[in-house]
Amino acid sequence: MSVKKPWDSAWKTNCRTKIKGCVGYAPSESKESRATNRSIFLDNKNERTLIYQRVNEPNEGAFSLLVPKGWQIAGGIFRVNPMSQGGATQSIAANLDFTVKKDRSGSMMIRRLPDILYFDASRSPAGQMGLFPPGSNYNGMTVYPLMSALQ
To answer: How far is CA 144 from CA 48, 77, 119, 124, 147, in A?
Structure first.
């Protein structure tokens, strides 16, 4: 699409169609990875190619990504109930706990852990009076003193 032409919504539709039907290919880099990942490589005229497949986040379909063919995904988007958490702070945004792994044992894997919020009460008047000791709950956050970089 040229910047000199007006916006055409068909361009967006065409891109989405191409992306959804995409199967990614990436060349293998090392002999070690070829030896350990034989199931996901495809021989093609003495070249070994890693085949990717598009998968959607399983819980809400919030995003999709390319993973090596045959790999497993686990987890996804989750939302915290503020009534069970003791406050609304952990419920402000959706959380993501997502894993992509080669096999059930996770011999090769990558994991995205959720953000967990904590509260340092040492500088608040209520904390200085001892109302929120470490380990207590403050609006859904665990009270824990801020650690120095050396800890």
So the answer is: 50, 26, 6, 13, 9
